[in-house]
Amino acid sequence: MNRDADILAFATRWRHWGGGSRSDIFVEFGISPEKYFRRLARVLDSVVARELPLEVREDLWRICRVRRSEGTSVPTGSAKTSTG
């Protein structure tokens, strides 16, 4: 399992819903959202992230900035409403 790739896949999947809830992050990675978003920021700086479209990388950077500045809670109204 490649954790950097897993983090990017999760972040990409959840980007339309504010980056994932605290519980989804913990269930998926076993870490706090604070650690997850620090790790995601490092991954976004890496070569691995260059494979993502620019628009997706920019969205993920924005989510990282917002979630880290807000203590990583999911913004109101951004919970995932469908499965998939």
Describe this protein with a few key phrases.
84 residues, mainly alpha, 57% helix, 0% strand, globular, disordered C terminus
Protein architecture, described:
The chain has 84 residues and is an all-alpha fold. It has four helices and no strands. Helix 1 crosses helix 3 and helix 3 packs antiparallel against helix 4. The chain is globular, with a radius of gyration of 12 Å. It starts with a helix and ends in a 15-residue tail after the last helix.
Report the structural category: mainly alpha
Shape: globular
Give the total of beta strands.
Answer: 0
Instruction: Bin the helical content.
Output: 55-70%
Q: Which range does the strand content fall in? A: under 5%
The parts where pLDDT drops under 50 for at least 5 residues are 75-84
Q: Give a short account of the largest sheet.
A: none
Report how far the terminal alpha carbons are from each other: 21 Å
Mean pLDDT: 85
Number of alpha- plus pi-helical segments: 4
Radius of gyration: 12 Å
Q: What's the SSE pattern?
A: HHHH
